[in-house]
Amino acid sequence: xxxxxxxxxxxxxxxxxxxxxxxxxxxxxxxxxxxxxxxxxxxxxxxxxxxxxxxxxxxxxxxxxxxxxxxxxxxxxxxxxxxxxxxxxxxxxxxxxxxxxxxxxxxxxxxxxxxxxxxxxxxxxxxxxxxxxxxxxxxxxxxxxxxxxxxxxxxxxxxxxxxxxxxxxxxxxxxxxxxxxxxxxxxxxxxxxxxxxxxxxxxxxxxxxxxxxxxxxxxxxxxxxxxxxxxxxxxxxxxxxxxxxxxxxxxxxxxxxxxxxxxxxxxxxxxxxxxxxxxxxxxxxxxxxxxxxxxxxxxxxxxxxxxxxxxxxxxxxxxxxxxxxxxxxxxxxxxxxxxxxxxxxxxxxxxxxxxxxxxxxxxxxxxxxxxxx
Length: 373
Hints:
Layout (H helix, E strand, L loop, with lengths): L2 H10 L4 H4 L7 H5 L3 E7 L2 E6 L5 E5 L8 E3 L5 E13 L5 E13 L9 E6 L4 E6 L7 H4 L8 E6 L4 E7 H8 L9 E7 L2 E6 L4 E6 L4 E6 L3 E4 L11 E4 L3 E6 L5 E5 L10 E6 L5 E8 L2 E6 L5 E5 L10 E7 L8 E8 L4 E4 L2 E6 L7 E7 L2
Antiparallel strand pairs: 1-27, 2-3, 3-5, 4-5, 5-6, 7-8, 8-9, 9-10, 11-12, 12-13, 13-14, 15-16, 17-18, 18-19, 19-20, 21-22, 22-23, 23-24, 25-26, 26-27
């Protein structure tokens, strides 16, 4: 496996990010203490979404489990378990895990940097759709039964816990595979009528899935060139390939699909873009000059809010920000709040942005409320 391939898979789910930034793991309380905390004690929280009822749902990637355990994509050992979950925060602030026992894989012993439930959207008063990541070759599911339900799009009636498979995104990657060797990590999710749009961070693709299970590639994000970090020992100014790593999808004011990217190793500052997906699958850069973007959300007035997982690049630690991009896009943006520890997802309600933080930690994740006025 090449370094660029494994790095794309690794950071697509932030799995193993703690190994890069172990010195930062004491930071969350100090970084986020000035913000109201609306949910706490979350296991590697990722994306989140509001339902029309005012309930806030959060995808928790879990903390892995007792195994089986295998070698991780960047070395070390990762272990599987049924620790993934969906948490509901009711309008009165009550916090409950309404769906548990979902598949998860995380670092052995620590439960850090998990892959598991990654995004969630409300599809009715009691129904949700959600993705479960994988971060591996889809064939892994043949040899590890505990991974059989990973890499897929699911639907649940959360009040009774019934779960139904909607589409196998990882199998689509195995069948279509437009970039290098098969690798799938479905994450960001958007509902558009009777179809769903999924950002496959492992496959570098945006995939459309229909309820009957059929899938289509909407777009393929291009790799880029990044400056080689000094510790590689290459001549100054050397450029090396970096993977696109699409992380989230959203519908813009114009009705088009927009997709964010994290960019893989070396996670260069200012290299990440927001792309607009044209009807023919081509991509236009809507906003640039961003760093390790993991989520995006449009406000009613067309202002775009994006989350940077690590504003100085992941090699400098997972301390990120919520950034505001004016209507129409471009490279100019304003930091709404910085100093967030490993932020990941964002959902808007009224004049407040709700952001998941501590996304690489079991039990240390939160949702914080960020005023936008």
